[in-house]
Amino acid sequence: MAHEAGENLALVEVPALTWAVFPNDGPHPETMQQTTVRIYAEWLAEAPYELDGFRMLSFSDVRDDGTAYSEIWVPVHCKA
Length: 80
What we know:
It is built from one helix and four strands; from the N terminus they run E-H-E-E-E. By secondary structure, the chain is of the alpha+beta class. The radius of gyration is 15 Å and the shape is flat.
């Protein structure tokens, strides 16, 4: 099945991985930035997972009031 990207967009193939998903909601972009810092500084230090080498993905649904619902997707695998 062929896929096309819209103008000024590119298709990125995303491999099948295990993803840790971190939803967050609040002032944008501060809440998403703080969540990202906490993922790397706190969660990864304590979790039984490590990064799986593929880049992190994120999206935000920004509202008119400057807040947003966002998700940060981090590829991980169990620590050996």
